[in-house]
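PROTOCOL LOG
Step 1. Enter all chains and additional molecules of the complex.
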Amino acid sequence: MAPDREPLLPQIVSLSDEDLMARVAEDDERSCTELVRRYQGRVTNLISRILNDRNGADDLSQEVFVRVFVHRRNYRRGSKLSTWIFTIAANLAKNEIRRRVRRRNWFSLDALTDVLQDSMIQLSDPAEGREAGMEREQLQGEVGRAIATVPEKYRLALVLRDIEGLAYEEIAEVLGIPGGTVRSRINRARSMLKRKLEPLLRKQETS
Amino acid sequence: MNRCTRARELFGPYWDDESTRAEREWLESHFNACPACREEYESLARTLSAVATLPRHEAAPDLAERALAVAKRATPAADRVFANAAPRWQPLAAAAAALAISIASVIAWQGGRVPQVAIHTGPVASPRLVSLGGAPAATGVPHARRATAASGSAAAISDSLFDHSEDVDFVLDPVTLRRGRAHAGASPSHRLPGDQAVITF
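Step 2. Run joint prediction.
Step 3. Record the structure below.
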């Protein structure tokens, strides 16, 4: 069947997550498109920041929604859809980190591509000076790379909290760990990140 | 517990705005008294602000289409996603077709003759013995065929919904084994009525 390109019906757009998922479970293709529309930004950004790899995040985001569709009937009505989707995304990202660590060849090319793409975006912004844009882009690249150096279990908690803004309770559900462990992992991750970024941030503040 | 250690444990909840009012007030008073903790917290705040200002990476525009296309291929055939679902009436239609074929086969086997149904409301006749001899048994039990001839077909089919007027009565002859072969016990001289037959082995 060809993908449905027709505009989404207003009633689909206004459906709750639960009702939308119920229609997805009944193989309603428009509801599937709406589900992707609702969560694609958060899922892609989450994975992109965990991996520090935008291109890899596209493929992995696709895999997240493939799994949502394939296992659509496993979703338990009453549970939070975003938690279920973030759990799938976090698990896939975790697997991808481990796979890349095994291969030991993941960082350089992807990160370089990411930086170049960000540079193009910044340079094309007419409201911002070239130099300031480059400085900002450089800082963002450093922050992204610093996050990527935080050990996996701390990084997941950090990104879910400080980039996606999930509550501690939801992070506990996504990662399948107690709330106290979530809190300590976030604290550890923040401390590691601060140690890595502090010289750069202090330097930028004084310049 | 050291006051600075306690203060640093509260940095996270303070940043996340999850500390209690009492904790918040205590920490702020500690910042006024301890420049080192204040500097430490400002450093953390700078870091987390830098993280918060990272641009969001947008999804590819065709993500939904690609995910749907892959999901269709990834799902097992028995549970294929979004495949054209078979109409729900198909099983009923298949059953009806099978039934029609069965009925047609039975009719064809019967030579195209639809069985005649006779409704009989009288009492069910008791089973009757069939005698091997030509004359009716002395017990006075009439032969079914004679009863048919005497009282008409309706009386003859008192125990059946079908017309048995053309039926042939089969009588199983006693079988004896002689030298490993089966032989009819009755002599060939036995004469049966015209509408009876003897099956021998």
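Step 4. Note key features.
Chain B touches chain A through 39 residues (CB under 8 Å).
Residues 90-109 of chain B form the longest helix (20 residues).
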